[in-house]
Each structure stands twice: as C-alpha cells, then as structure tokens.
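agent> fetching stored inputs for the iron/sulfur cluster docking request
agent> found them:
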Amino acid sequence: MINFQYARANDVADAVRMIATDPTAKFIAGGTNLIDLMKEDVERPSGLIDISRLPLKGVEETSDGGVRIGALVPNSDLAWHPLIEQRYPLLRNAILAGASQQLRNMASTGGNLLQRTRCAYFYDIATPCNKREPGSGCSAIGGINRIHAILGTSESCIATHPSDMCVALAALDAKVHVTGPAGERVLAFTDFHRLPDSSPQTDTNLHPNELITAVELPAKGFPANYSYLKIRDRLSYAFALVSIAAAMELEGGTIGEARLALGGVAHKPWRDSAAESALRGQPANQTTFEQAADILLRDARGYEHNTFKIDLARRGIVRTLTQAAQATPQSQSDKKIR
Ligand SMILES: Cc1cc2nc3c(=O)[nH]c(=O)nc-3n(C[C@H](O)[C@H](O)[C@H](O)COP(=O)(O)OP(=O)(O)OC[C@H]3O[C@@H](n4cnc5c(N)ncnc54)[C@H](O)[C@@H]3O)c2cc1C
Ligand code: SF4
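agent> prediction call returned; pasting tokens
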C-alpha cells in the first residue's frame, strides 16, 4: 500500500472540484472495495476524496411515479426501504443476495456500480492482466477461468462484473445521474457499464472526474411477478457464478412486458432485447422460457473451465422465469434453490 492524501468533500461541487484538481485521486464511499484494492496494490490513488458525508442519502419518489436513490444510500437501507420493498422487490432481493449484512451496511449505491471484477489475476499483481496493466496480457485466457465470462468477451479480457444489485437495476431500466466539471448528465443503466473490447481497463462510460449522484428507477417495478436467482459455490458470502433477474406482467397466462438480465456471465449486467421480445405476447410456459434462454445464450462461448456456465445459465433462466410467472420468487432468507 502506498502513501496517499486524504480530504473530505463538503458538498457535490466541492467533490467535483477536488477530483478535477487531482485526476489521480479517487472518491471513497463505503471503502469496501477500494480499500481492499489499495491494500493489494492494485489501485494506487494519489489521494482519497471522502464523499461519505455528502447529502446523497435520500430515497424519494419522483414526479413521474419513479424513485430516486441517492448515491450514498447504503445497500442495507435501500433493500429495506418501504418504497423498494413494496414497489421494487426484485431490487431488494438482488441486494440481499449479495455480500453480508455488515458489508451491505457499509456499501453505497454508487460504489456498488463501480466495484471491480473479482478475477483473481486482477488482484494478483505478480500476473499479467490487461485490466490492471493495459498491454500486459490476460492470464485468465488459458489460465484458470472457471468464474469468467461466456458472453461479450474479447481477446483482451474475459472478466465478469460481480454485482448483484446492478443486475436488477439493468432489468428495471434504471438511469444513472452523474455530475462532473461539464455539468450533469444521465446515462441509461444498460449504457453505464461497458464490454472489455480492446480497453478492459475501462469498466464504465463514467468519465474519470465525474461523481455518481443518484440512481433513478422508472415507475414500473414488477412487484407481482419477479424473481432473482443467484447460483454460487456456497449459499452465502460468495459471488455469482450465474445470476438471473426476471420480471414480467401477466395478462391471463400471457406475458405482456418482460425483463431478463444476467449477472456473472459478462463484463456488464447482460440484457438482450431479442430474448425479451421472444417472451412478450407468448404463453408463460416452459417452451417459451427455453426459447428465450436459447436466444439469450446464442453467442455464448465457454473457455477451458467455464463451459458449464452455458448450461447452468440456460437452466437458471428457465427456473427464474418460472418462479416469476408463478409469483414464487426465490427466497433470499432460505437461499436453497428448489
Ligand atoms: C468479501 C466481500 C464480498 C462481497 N460480495 C458481494 C456480492 O456477493 N455481491 C455484490 O454485488 N457485491 C459484493 N461485494 C461488493 C460490495 O457490494 C462492494 O464492495 C460495494 O458495493 C462497494 O461500495 P462502496 O461504497 O464500499 O465502494 P468504495 O469501495 O468506496 O468505492 C468503490 C469504487 O467506486 C468509486 N465510487 C464510490 N462512490 C462513488 C460515486 N458516488 N461516484 C463516483 N465514484 C464512486 C470509488 O472511487 C471506487 O473506485 C462484496 C465485497 C466484499 C469485500
Ligand atoms: S480476465 Fe480481465 S481482469 Fe482477468 S486477467 Fe484477463 S484482463 Fe485481467
């Protein structure tokens, strides 16, 4: 770990000003990812700009019936907020599937979006890694790649995005509000994270000097028919091998609006409009769900140790859509998959 400066921002404008004067500094919110990365010498910021006391901790209804979540709302507070519990239970369940209670108490909404991959080579500074050191190579391709991506990979990187919360936010069509020296802008959630292509060092389309101020949910929350299924090596305190967020509206036995997003399979939460189109207007049954799964996974590619994820994802999609259709969402207190 290197020496670094520490300063606390007083307000949003102050935080943006501070990062503009030192682009090699980093914001720190809950610190649950950044401090680990600094201890491992993966991240070496010249300074930390503490944003944890900025007034971004509100969860409020918007004028169009949605909800605006401040970037510093802790994951636990968000999961148990009455607006989220009642109107966006898919988001609550995805959050509760992640990490541990203690970590969720510290982890912030903005920090969750920007947590970095759990590829072991990324954390091991003795190994080549294009994401940590551009141009050095990818140790996972040809190495141990059991937890790695099967969709949207590149020759430079096959890492996955590890968040659970982000999978639900992608399915719910959230938006990300950011502020930087050039002012404010809003990004669609599906445009926030990026695929690795030839520059895997860049995880998102956030500019380095921008601050996330809020995440906004639209009015539609699918409170009746939803499920978040997280498949992992052990039932708690483990990242997803594959996770699935599914939500739909049902008219009789027919699917109206449908959402499907996957975690643990790509460099970003994976949504596929063709798979969702294949659900709309169709009967909510196993055949429809299998067709949607096949469409979503049509370009999936396994590496030496992770080919099992393709079949796991297919079966997981069918199960999660079935749970959503039957209004029997996967329990996050009894995590057993039945
Ligand atoms: C042991 C362990 C297990 C975990 N298991 C899971 C799991 O199963 N599922 C899961 O989803 N997550 C899991 N996590 C990850 C956890 O959810 C994240 O570490 C957490 O959400 C990060 O939030 P934070 O506020 O602590 O971010 P920090 O560590 O403070 O920051 C992370 C990054 O975000 C940047 N940042 C933070 N806030 C902002 C902002 N408002 N604007 C711009 N940049 C910002 C920081 O500069 C930094 O680069 C686990 C973590 C640990 C340590
Ligand atoms: S998969 Fe990505 S993060 Fe992992 S070693 Fe390769 S380049 Fe690095």
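agent> quick read of the result: The longest helix spans residues 308-325.
agent> awaiting further instructions
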